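Quick one: structure tokens for this chain, please?
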Amino acid sequence: MNDLKIVIRGGGDTGTAVAWYLFKANFKKIVILEKKKPSSIRREVCFSSAIYENEKIIEGVKAVKCENFIKFQKKNYIPVIIDEQGEFLKRKKIDVLVDAILSKRKPRNYNLEKFFIIGLGPEFIPKINCHVAIETYRGHNLGKIYFSGAPVGPTGIPGEIGGYREERLLKAPIDGEIKVFKKIGDFLKKGDIIAKIKDCEILAKIDGILRGIVKDGLYVYKNQKIGDIDPRGIKDYCFTISDRSRCIAGAVLLAILNKFG
């Protein structure tokens, strides 16, 4: 079973947690597909950062940027390749696909006959566009595995952390290239200037620690989520996988064991 060929679409914090869990469970034939310019926010715990940095080590597991359409081989790292359209899925024989893009838009229609598909989050419906869906919304059902039914749809309401919801999120006020002044892990006071897009300043709405911010120089769009302030103020949380992502990753591992174990 550990020879399963597994592809994870999306190397953000959730996709990274999935890859980390599977790698630690001795699944070593894993590939992450990413965009040319990832817009991950929690970059210190995202394997997508390897696209910019060539490699990224998170809690002892390394991901390395590789050329497209590499061979599935057991490695001591997780390959990350640029493949926005999923061409890798057409050219390689794979066993498991985990869609961890967590898009608010309708997900792709995959061929259910080709490989075992695990969809994370809203809009994934077993037997329609995946075999198994996982709940990603914070709450009682977080990490629930759906063999029928479906996860909660987009609510537009951020999960609560430290008593805050909307206030802890940073969103782009306009389209444009972002200039970031603060680093992930920096402590913030309400009113601090975190970044700027053209002449628009992006200010901290609460006290806390900057848990995530998109890469400096990235082109962003109005209302796009670009950052995250953690009111708990614990620096270690910026550099370790979150409780939410660990819960989802554990559910993915369980779903794979249920299918192939």
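Residues 174 and 199 are 10 Å apart (CA to CA).
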